[in-house]
Amino acid sequence: SLTSPANNATYTAPATVPWQVIWSAGTNTVSRVDLIENGTTIKSFSNPASSPLPYSWTNVAAGTYGLQAVATDNTGLSNGSALITITVNPPANQPPVVGAIAANPPDVDPVAPGVQEYEGTTVSYSATVNDPNNDPLTYQWYYTRNGGGRVAYGSQGSIPSGSGAAQVSFG
Prior knowledge:
Blueprint (H helix, E strand, L loop, with lengths): L1 E3 L4 E4 L2 E7 L8 E8 L2 E7 L6 E8 L2 E11 L4 E3 L3 E6 L7 E8 L18 E8 L6 E8 L5 E10 L3 E8 L1
Parallel strand pairs: 2-9
Antiparallel strand pairs: 1-3, 3-6, 4-5, 4-7, 7-8, 7-9, 10-11, 11-14, 12-13
């Protein structure tokens, strides 16, 4: 029988799903145990040493899965556990990650906080961005003039693939 995971158990992707199989073959010996997900064998154990048999199924993607264990004895007879269903939910949404900002021409004072440039200079900035959930991204560049408040500068865009470069020029 398949004693773990429990029927209707839920996990969060990328999930690690613990399997535990218990069997009895009477006077025969178990020659193989197959772990089956939606009709496909994901792991097979030849001549398992003892019952219970543990297994960790790792990196399981979001979805609904039907799981079953099938034991085969040394005479070729097989018996399957009851089919159980588990659900792996998508991971919680994570915020995007913005890499270091690069300036061209380079920062005139790399020690000062932020990126410093001379007034009247046209500067191009770029930053790499990545979303751990691979969600599409939108961005807006901002700058502060001479210690004043934050001013939106007319550069915005989107990155449909969840990672890429965001670029802008100020001048």
